[in-house]
Amino acid sequence: MASKAQVLYDFTAEPGNNELSVREGETLTVTNQSIGGGWIEVQNSKGEVGLVPEDYIEIGKPGGGGGPPALDLSFFDSQPAAATSTTTHSQASNGNDPWAAFSTNANAGFSTNANAGFSNNWAAQPQGTETGRTSTHDPWGSAAPPHPQAYQGPGADDDEWDDEWDDKSTGGYGESEGGEGGAINRGGATGTSMKIKFPSFSKSGPELYLLSKPAPKGKDRLLIYMGEVGPIWSYPEAALDCVVADPKKGTKMYGLKSYIEYQVSPNTTNRPVNHRYKHFDWLYERLLDKFGSAVPIPSLPDKQVTGRFEEEFIKMRMERLQGWMTRMCRHPVIATSEVFQLFLSYKDEKDWKMGKRKAEKDEAVGAMIFSTIDPEGLPDLDPIDVEHKCEQFSRFTRAMDDGVKDLLTVGQEHWKRCTGPLPKEYQRIGKAFQNLSSVFNSSGYEGEATLTDALTQAGKTYEDIALMVAEQPKKDLHYLMETNNEYKGLLGCFPDTIGVHKSAIEKVKEGDKLVATSKITPGDKITMAKRASTMSYALQAEMNHFHSNRIYDYNRVMRLYLEEQVKFYETIAEKLKHAHSQFTAM
Amino acid sequence: MASKAQVLYDFTAEPGNNELSVREGETLTVTNQSIGGGWIEVQNSKGEVGLVPEDYIEIGKPGGGGGPPALDLSFFDSQPAAATSTTTHSQASNGNDPWAAFSTNANAGFSTNANAGFSNNWAAQPQGTETGRTSTHDPWGSAAPPHPQAYQGPGADDDEWDDEWDDKSTGGYGESEGGEGGAINRGGATGTSMKIKFPSFSKSGPELYLLSKPAPKGKDRLLIYMGEVGPIWSYPEAALDCVVADPKKGTKMYGLKSYIEYQVSPNTTNRPVNHRYKHFDWLYERLLDKFGSAVPIPSLPDKQVTGRFEEEFIKMRMERLQGWMTRMCRHPVIATSEVFQLFLSYKDEKDWKMGKRKAEKDEAVGAMIFSTIDPEGLPDLDPIDVEHKCEQFSRFTRAMDDGVKDLLTVGQEHWKRCTGPLPKEYQRIGKAFQNLSSVFNSSGYEGEATLTDALTQAGKTYEDIALMVAEQPKKDLHYLMETNNEYKGLLGCFPDTIGVHKSAIEKVKEGDKLVATSKITPGDKITMAKRASTMSYALQAEMNHFHSNRIYDYNRVMRLYLEEQVKFYETIAEKLKHAHSQFTAM
């Protein structure tokens, strides 16, 4: 039991999970090797005991860590050290940590001061580093690498929900070290504690669908209508919504590991169901597999959340899960899907398990989703129109991505100033006034009191203002940042969604050649054009959905931001007015 | 005529004076060597023609510059390069450039970022450097060195008022390089273009007065009464005041050199008299000689004023001359003095010249001023009381000096932030909103206009706020800084004034010993104690004058500051409220 272990990679404990932060090169004593789930209990030289991922350490005696050898994933375009750790959907990674590697894509003219201290409470702790690029591709040069996770492999029993693989997190509004560095990715993990996600929809591509048989017109059809703004999805009559609340802590492994369970209450049943973060992740995977080719599925806020204190971490994660769920609820295709409904309103454990199995066996995934889409009664679009629309959307989403990143950079800078130097300065002004007041007080001159009292009051007012300035970003800038952050994640999914369409358009363009070389029949060519038209209707419907949500979201967040800003400045003016009144009128 | 000259020291031209900025090592062509007044007309390699002080250049052929050899002033505790350039009353130098060398005396805990860019318009140009210490002593370690001047020597005809010796200036709220550096002082000037001022009152010391015969009780007596707050000066029934206005440019030397004349209108005659800066300087010298032992005479704002543009320079100098004159007018001893009355209301040129000659021949200067002070009917003070009072004032003025410098440091930092990074940030926020607005505008989605218009409006509002933030310090912080700056200068005079009292106290303490060694008679000893008592009444009256003015000034400036701050924040809130109203309510 008392065997020694050497730490291979830095590991930062997540608060409240009985984990232990360790540094590369540190020597540990193994106190419990049979924890399971990829974790080992160790004691450091200070006597602190906690869990570390088994892949982060090398145990002195043979047979300690181990596991199957690293998979050869060298066909992924990733850095050597990171290649064997984790890969994920490129779509997912686009949104994973929109803050990381940001400066590399920021508009010129905005210098980001990456090394300045940055201390908003819940985002100040840059846990781990995210410098290795592990995404399969980098559509706009801004993909953030996913963080290595020590979660279960795909072969694990899917009813075993007890392992805490809620990921270490980075980001928030903290500093990221960009994607250019050469630092070693935190995970050198192999084997059991790794999960490889293949980008299923892009692997299959649109070919399968383009030449597939027409689907029977069943109840699963996703209808597209012509609305005022163009093609739109069929929206349910009652808007779906849900509340993510009441995070509760549970423990497992005899209290060694803990997890958080959230209550999710949909407005349809008003009956809460419990879900852990990894259930959300499971849902995300299902939605991505099934709808990702037609609907950009923003990744979960896992990598974006961190906190110096557990409560802040939980609060922030909950807030972001709520944001994610709200967005999913608002989407007509997602909201009405069986898997999403299951997640929101499963009746009991049995119902949940059966639903899960069914969802995982669903074969209408990837590009095949288009076979269920029905632009009912709408005329087929000309391939040139299809291409034109696709390019227009591509330009727009790219431009918006730039704009959003601009705003995030500026907001981050402003956050830094508002929580750092600015309040310090107001505090100093306040102290200088109070200091002068106490000097005046020592004059021995009669009739001094009115001035010194007023000066002290003025000084305290500036100290109050200092606090207000430091607290304000949480009240307004925070929401502006969150919304833009969400949009950054969402926009990061568009290149893949649009890519599916582009590759379909390419196939259709090759139609004549394929017919000439007898690869397809003339009838196939017509079918392909028809299918591409359907895909274009889907993309247009999706863009219109995106636009209407965007207008709603930005309108809302700007109102909130400006409202809070007005209150802020009015309160300052009010405080100063009071301070002013304390001085003798002349 | 076409002889070449080598530049010995950097020289920065004062705007509007036909001067030419030159750099050390530069080669010039001498175009007119017979300008006079210590100036030479030169042409640089770019063909620009202008005046430079003759002592700043070395003319190629023999007999070019020259003048009498440097005086040996090595008994002054100053740096070699500066020692031969200029010295001045230590009292004057305390106030000369209260900003320079400031950081060396700033309270700990306030880091001054001396190299950061600082760009308020009228103070941004650090002309020359002020690193050599030329003051005779440095009472609180904060004396700023005077700047070398190219003005007339004391032997020049005092009716020849036409030479422009208004000094190059530095300071304002600009950066100073502190007094610790070893850079060469700008002036290596010798001979004619130098004026040596000896601190006459501290040279004479209080001994002369302590044992002098009692002065006849004439009309020149300066009475001290017992007021509510203690001993007070006899204040005139009507408060004197004056307005410094209407700066007008004149030229001399056939238009080669120009000068500024200000109109000074006292409320007694309401008749304006014209004065050039050097007339103010003459007045300052007279007041310092005559009253400096009893009344701290703040130095003129010469070294504190600078401007990138001539109008700003003139405006700022006028503002500070006004402040100085107002302070002098408010002082009962100064206001009622013959020399001050002459300055404010001379009838004609002849009256002025006669008055000048008389004032310059006045022998009741230095410590002898106390012989005209009469604490009428007040009991003699015990020497222990005298010492106690003196120490109390010394402590207070020193503490206030620290407090004022604190506030100035903080204010300077704040000024920098408000005119530099902060508005830039608001501008960026504004641009980011507008940028997003124009991206949204390109969406092709219908019903976009309301949001994009509102976003553009919000963006412009933040650009407006940026301008407001940058302009605000001129509206409020400026006056807070000016007032504290004035007090810094004034407080810098106290160590000398208090020093005279301390040395009188020392003499009185030695009384018994002096009697025992027959240096003085027992009667002399009693006289000395009586005289010290008079001096103490004078100091107390002066302190009470100082306190009442201080309370008035700080009350006034704080009200002004806070009033403007309230307006500022209210205007921002108003603007944001309007921006908010442009977004669609939901």
Keywords for this entry:
homodimer, 586 residues, alpha+beta, PX Domain, 5-stranded antiparallel beta sheet, 3-stranded mixed beta sheet, 16 helices, SNX9_SH3 (chains A, B), transport (chains A, B)
Q: Using DSSP, what is the number of strands of chain A?
A: 11
Mean pLDDT metric of chain A:
76
Strand ordering within the main sheet of chain A: 4-3-2-1-5
Query: Based on the structure, what is the oligomeric state of the protein chains?
Result: homodimer
What is the fold named in CATH at topology level of the largest domain in chain A? Answer: Substrate Binding Domain Of Dnak, Chain:A, Domain 2
The poorly predicted ranges of chain A are 62-203
Q: Largest inter-chain interface?
A: A-B, 70 and 70 residues
How does this structure look, described?
- The structure is a homodimer of 586-residue chains.
- Chain A is α+β, with helices and mostly antiparallel strands and 586 residues long.
- Chain A has three domains: 4-59, Roll (SH3 type barrels); 199-376, Phox-like domain (PX Domain, 2-Layer Sandwich), CATH 3.30.1520; 379-586, Arfaptin homology (AH) domain/BAR domain (Substrate Binding Domain Of Dnak, Chain:A, Domain 2, Up-down Bundle), CATH 1.20.1270.60.
- Helices cover 45% and strands 11% of the residues of chain A.
- Chain A is built from 16 helices and eleven strands.
- In chain A, the strands form three sheets. A five-stranded antiparallel sheet of chain A has the order 4-3-2-1-5, with no helix packed on it. Chain A has a three-stranded mixed sheet with strand order 7-6-11. A three-stranded antiparallel sheet of chain A has the order 8-9-10.
- In chain A, a hairpin with a 6-residue loop joins strand 9 (257-266) and strand 10.
- In chain A, helix 11 (421-441) packs antiparallel against helix 12 (449-475).
- Chain A starts with a strand and ends in a 5-residue tail after the last helix.
- The relative contact order of chain A is 0.12.
- Mean pLDDT of chain A is 76; it is low at 62-203.
- The interface between A and B is large, with 70 and 70 residues.
